[in-house]
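Running this now, will post back.
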Amino acid sequence: MFPKNCWYVAAWDHEVQRLHPMRRLLLGEPVVLYRASDGAPVALEDRCCHRHAQLSRGRVRGDIIECAYHGLRFAPDGACVHIPSQEQIPPSARVRSYPVAEKHHWVWIWPGDPALADESRIPDFGVMDHPDWTWRGETLAVAGNAMLVVENLMDLSHLPALHRTTLADTAIPETDIPVDYRIESDRIEVDRWALDTPAPPYFRLLAGFAADARVDRWMNTIYTPPSFVRIDIGAAEAGSGAREGDRSRAVTTWNLNAVTPETGTSAHYFWAQAQDFAGGDPSLSELDFALVHKAFEEDLAVIAGQQENLDLDPAAPRLDLAADRAGLQARRIVERMAREEAG
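Update: finished.
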């Protein structure tokens, strides 16, 4: 069960097109997405109120979408405005319309009470809009509950074991380096720093640090509900003041994650990798993206196995370790939000 009075990513901006409606299952609800004549995104229930045909199989006429089965037409507010076989339109002839917003190259949807939809509550993924940053993103299909992805992202202690050939050398061991946890309201921050250490291969490859370079590096994670995780990863010349806020001699990459439940056992995983050091060389951004993409494929294979075992025995006990602290807190926040909505 997921809370609905919050924003979720429904699609990348380029996926939502003017004349080609698309269907997406979001939080167990069928949604059709298209653009009105002014380019604004529209999200409607993808289920005609007449005989439950999928509106996404129909066509867009101006701002209106027409059902392919019997030709009923619906406005962006969900109201039926035309029935070919009769002149009278019953008041009940409508489908649900969802509040939507377009920000940070994503189309966002509010599946809860429309009166509570507030665009200021959309999390900040602004590096994807910044001219000094280069980025690439994609959508991955998750064969598991969305919170399994959130737990995975909040617990980076799995990097050395699972990602031996991809991201293992970026990990900052929790047994060696103190981890700083901060929880303010429903925001969780986990900071990991390693000071005056050899530059790992990841940063030598991408950012050009010398083989004998000494760096201060970090991997800081920010969670905001219901399912957004941003990871600030970087390295700076040792002793240059990065930990105190001076990143003038640093390179930074942001791993940006938005996980939207499809059902209780599947999810849409929207993510991007952004860098402030690629400049005019797109190959650096592509290389960074490829490394993380491969690691995420490894993550999703494990998550699919977790979900398979959960389906077999949802009540099987789990052993919680110290490294699970942030992920467990994130899960509790989401469960509390859902309970409060349910009353």
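The chain has a mean pLDDT of 94. More later if anyone needs it.
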